[in-house]
């Protein structure tokens, strides 16, 4: 392991910001950056050596490889984290447009919603099956559904998610509004008791591997689509009409009152999904 990779690993271990997945993604991204800097001829670097020329060299390579703006933005966010932790936050401008990275395109009217269907019957691990049911019922991410502790989360009329379960470490709540949600919570209580949906003899990463393997064997791919289904169902409940991604009317057809209802619904769904930006809801609902 070269000095830069080693010192970046140490930096990450000293600053454990965000969930396990966030930390792991950051470490992978920074290790890749270290290798690419070495390939670009920058030798004998340490984490504290980062300069603007290094960031520009990486950006030039990523753009030359034709990576999507979303991928480049994720990598830049990791570079900014690195720069901030070594006291050089000014190396990179906060605005990606200044770096020539276009805005991410969020609007799409192609639905990515998925249902569990008969695939759930092929899941043999009871904890994985329960995690999938919670994902469908509450629009949870994979990590949130695996780490879920019903004894902590169930607050009667809503569930509360710990920051250590969520992306970015942001706590949030999701309302309980359907019998499907309440039934899923009852089942989670019976299975996990006062614990989580990670069996007592496993660590999170081990159970995540079990989850991935079980889903693959059952033919269930991209279970993030369960979040899309949740968002679209919530939108229809809150507005009274289907979202554009599910065949509903386009916002261009709305009158003033419909626009207000649409905006309220998107704000509510954005909070329930754990997103800070309202524009992200277009991924789930369409434009």
Automatic annotation (TrEMBL):
<dbReference type="InterPro" id="IPR024456">
    <property type="entry name" value="Integrase_catalytic_putative"/>
</dbReference>
<dbReference type="InterPro" id="IPR024457">
    <property type="entry name" value="Putative_integrase_N"/>
</dbReference>
<dbReference type="GO" id="GO:0003677">
    <property type="term" value="F:DNA binding"/>
</dbReference>
<dbReference type="Pfam" id="PF12835">
    <property type="entry name" value="Integrase_1"/>
</dbReference>
<dbReference type="Pfam" id="PF12834">
    <property type="entry name" value="Phage_int_SAM_2"/>
</dbReference>
<dbReference type="InterPro" id="IPR013762">
    <property type="entry name" value="Integrase-like_cat_sf"/>
</dbReference>
<dbReference type="GO" id="GO:0015074">
    <property type="term" value="P:DNA integration"/>
</dbReference>
<protein>
    <submittedName>
        <fullName>Integrase</fullName>
    </submittedName>
</protein>
<dbReference type="GO" id="GO:0006310">
    <property type="term" value="P:DNA recombination"/>
</dbReference>
<keyword id="KW-0233">DNA recombination</keyword>
<feature type="domain" description="Putative integrase N-terminal">
    <location>
        <begin position="1"/>
        <end position="88"/>
    </location>
</feature>
<feature type="domain" description="Integrase catalytic">
    <location>
        <begin position="104"/>
        <end position="232"/>
    </location>
</feature>
<dbReference type="InterPro" id="IPR011010">
    <property type="entry name" value="DNA_brk_join_enz"/>
</dbReference>
């Amino acid at each position: 392991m070269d000095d830069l990779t080693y010192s970046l690993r140490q930096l990450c271990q000293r600053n454990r910001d965000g969930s396990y997945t966030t930390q792991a993604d950051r470490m992978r991204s920074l290790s890749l950056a270290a290798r690419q800097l070495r390939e670009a001829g920058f030798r004998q670097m340490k984490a504290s050596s980062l300069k603007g020329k290094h960031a520009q060299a990486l950006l030039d390579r990523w753009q030359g490889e034709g990576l999507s703006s979303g991928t480049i933005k994720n990598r830049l966010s990791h570079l900014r984290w690195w720069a901030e932790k070594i006291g050089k936050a000014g190396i990179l401008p906060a605005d990606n447009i200044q770096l020539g990275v276009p805005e991410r395109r969020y609007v799409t009217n192609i639905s990515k919603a998925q249902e569990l269907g008969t695939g759930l019957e092929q899941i043999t691990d009871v904890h994985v099956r329960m995690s999938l049911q919670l994902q469908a019922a509450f629009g949870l991410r994979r990590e949130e559904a695996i780490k879920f502790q019903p004894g902590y989360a169930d607050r009667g009329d809503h569930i509360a998610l710990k920051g250590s379960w969520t992306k970015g470490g942001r706590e949030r709540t999701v309302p309980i509004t359907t019998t499907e949600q309440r039934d899923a919570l009852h089942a989670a209580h019976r299975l996990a008791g006062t614990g989580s949906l990670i069996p007592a003899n496993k660590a999170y990463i081990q159970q995540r591997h079990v989850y991935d393997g079980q889903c693959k064997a059952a033919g269930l791919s991209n279970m993030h689509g369960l979040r899309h289904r949740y968002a679209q169902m919530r939108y229809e409940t809150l507005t009274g009409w289907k979202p554009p991604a599910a065949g509903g009317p386009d916002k261009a057809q709305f009158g003033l009152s419909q626009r207000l209802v649409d905006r309220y619904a998107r704000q509510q769904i954005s909070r329930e999904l754990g997103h800070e930006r309202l524009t992200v809801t277009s991924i789930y609902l369409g434009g």
